[in-house]
Specification:
heterodimer, A: globular, B: about 375 residues, alpha+beta, Rossmann fold, OB fold (Dihydrolipoamide Acetyltransferase, E2P), 2 domains, five-stranded antiparallel beta sheet
């Protein structure tokens, strides 16, 4: 009862793996896009803003389908990835991570963008007068100041990835041990007769995982706050 | 040498500033709030780009629109102390202080952390975060941080304006020490006459983005035509005077200036020191005959050389006291009753306590600026 079955363990490991990779993929890109949206104005800005936010409003299944069209082995970019680098994303756990990353991306960007807009640009100007280059100012002043926003963005993206279902099942399918994360496993056991107990156990596991993520982020946030406020 | 000739359109007016001055010592940019002083300093620092013009500091061209030169702020090597402290909240005091020092070329690091920490008295603050410092402490650290960048020139934009009077008194002596102990020229922006008299040698008077006058502080303050800009309440003469004697019995110090001797409350400054002091026009009274039996300690002969044209009940008179310009503010009624007119010899009276430490500064600049001494 208290130990996890092999299917549960696999689903847990896979969920964590997928969520971590999803955050890793979306973080640098998220910072870059948030930076562009927060600091620059250019003609196509509303379009970029719209594309970034699309996964938030589109049905996840549509996102999954679009990913198949673009990144599937026969897809626009997927074809190149396969023939040049022998990379297949569709129906793999990396593909599940890509789907989760796309779905989580708007949350990541919003959080970092908000933090960037709150940064006192006068501090950056002060750093310039002290001889720091643009990149140096970004790394030593801007980045530390937005770190709480980055952390919040990562947590949101992580949680969103743990819960991702529609885009994942469409793009990466529901293959036990390969792409079957906790939500997909839960979906599968609900489909089987007498799967109530297994479903309940997975639901509890999911709740526990989310709480753990929240706790870790709270601890990190406190540390950051202490560093910023002293 | 500081050479600036810049133009920039702001919403309210156009900045068209042009002046040249010796950059040694303290050069004050004086003007009312909103006269464009901060924008001019930002153009020196490279934080604001002029539409056209030229900025040269110590033979180094920092900006020249004709030749497409615009050195970015991080390469200008100018220290900047802002109105707000702008300390990095995520770094402790030590790391804040060393931020610019670490980025200065090794060969330029002539000012070291220990000296600055000692001068500013901030040893016990080093490991603290800026969030846990008082306003005065923060501004002291900001001074140290700019100084430790080992700049070729320090820019200070109203560094005391955000502090209350008591905090100002805490920080001002440190700026004086910084000026006296480190050989870094300073451009000091302020709208406070008090600060300028205490700190500056040269003064650039700015109004609506234009330079109205450049010169020694006492010369600029002595000019009748600039009175509307130097301010009515603030108005007064700035004199250079040398300490001739201390009188511990009455706790007074005697100063020699062109017009004679001034007695002011005792100063802890050696005899022979040259001071700059401000005598406000409203603290000077006039008499036609040498007054006897009065409490006022400072009476000196002077000649009326100019009469202002103010509207209202008061009027300002410019006096010449042995070559030193002094101002007196009297009522128009007194002017009429005493039949005062240019050329008339009178006796000027100043209460000893009217000259306080707020209106005293040590003269540090080159001797050529001295007058009436």
């Amino acid at each position: 009862m208290y130990s996890l079955t092999s299917i549960e363990l696999e689903a847990l490991q896979l969920s964590l793996k997928v969520a971590f990779l999803a955050v890793t993929i979306s973080l640098p890109l998220g910072i870059a896009v948030a930076w562009i949206l927060a600091r620059y104005s250019f003609p196509g800005k509303p379009v970029l803003d719209g594309i970034v936010h699309l996964p938030l409003v589109l049905p996840p299944v549509v996102v999954g389908y679009l990913l198949l069209v673009v990144l599937g082995r026969e897809g626009l970019i997927g074809r190149w990835l396969y023939s040049l680098f022998d990379i297949t994303l569709a129906f793999t756990w990396q593909g599940a991570a890509v789907a989760a990353a796309v779905m989580a991306f708007p949350l990541m960007v919003r959080s970092i963008r908000l933090a960037l807009e709150l940064v006192d640009r006068k501090l950056e100007a002060a750093a310039f007068t002290l001889g720091a280059s643009y990149w140096n100012v970004f790394v030593t002043v801007t980045l530390p100041l937005i770190s709480p926003g980055i952390l919040a963005g990562c947590l949101l993206a992580f949680a969103r990835s743990l819960g991702e279902f529609g885009a994942t099942i469409t793009f990466a399918a529901n293959i036990p041990g390969v792409t079957q994360t906790i939500p997909l496993a839960l979906y599968s056991v609900i489909q089987t007769p007498e799967g109530e107990l297994a479903a309940l156990r997975l639901a509890v596991l999911s709740v526990a995982l989310s709480f753990a993520a929240l706790a870790v982020s709270e601890i990190l946030a406190r540390r950051l706050r202490k560093r910023l406020v002293g | 040498m500081l050479k600036i000739d810049v133009q920039k359109n702001l919403n309210a007016f156009q900045i068209a500033t042009r002046f040249e001055c010796d950059s040694s010592g303290v050069t004050a940019l004086f003007g009312r709030s909103g006269s464009g002083k901060t924008t001019i300093v930002n153009m020196l620092a490279g934080l604001v780009t002029p539409e056209r013009g030229k900025v040269v500091i110590k033979d180094r061209v920092l900006f020249d629109s004709d030749h497409g030169i615009n050195i970015p702020p991080q390469k200008r090597r100018l220290g900047y102390v802002f109105q707000e402290d702008r300390l990095f909240p995520h770094l402790n005091v030590r790391k804040n202080l060393l931020y610019g020092w670490k980025r200065a070329p090794k060969t330029a690091r002539r000012i070291q952390l220990e000296q600055v920490v000692e001068m500013l008295g901030i040893e016990r603050l080093l490991e603290r975060n800026p969030g846990r410092l008082s306003g005065g402490e923060k501004q002291r650290v900001a001074l140290g941080r700019a100084l430790l960048a080992n700049p070729s020139l320090l820019l200070m934009d109203e560094p005391l304006a955000a502090l209350d009077q008591a905090r100002k008194e805490d920080v001002l002596p440190f700026i004086e020490r910084l000026r006296d102990e480190f050989d870094v020229p300073i451009v000091y922006v302020s709208h406070s006459m008090e600060e300028i008299v205490r700190l500056a040698d040269t003064m650039v008077l700015i109004s609506d983005g234009q330079v109205e006058a450049v010169g020694a502080v006492d010369d600029v303050m002595g000019r009748l035509d600039l009175r509307p800009l130097t301010g009515r309440y603030e108005a007064g003469a700035v004199l250079n005077a040398r300490i001739s004697k201390h009188d511990p019995e009455f706790a007074l110090t005697e100063l020699a200036f062109g017009g004679g001797t001034l007695r002011i409350p005792l100063l802890d400054v050696p005899v022979g020191t040259l001071l700059r002091l401000r005598i406000r026009a409203r603290d000077v009274s006039l008499a036609l005959t040498p007054p006897n039996d009065i409490s006022i300690q400072n009476v000196f002969k002077a000649t009326i050389v100019g009469i202002g044209s103010e509207t209202g009940p008061q009027i300002d008179l410019r006096l010449d006291a042995g070559g030193a310009a002094v101002w007196a503010r009297i009522t128009k009624r007194a002017l009429m009753t005493l039949k005062l007119e240019p050329g008339r010899e009178i006796y000027a009276m100043v209460k000893a306590i009217a000259v306080d430490r707020h209106s005293l500064g040590r003269v540090t600049g080159p001797d050529r600026f001295l007058s009436g001494d």
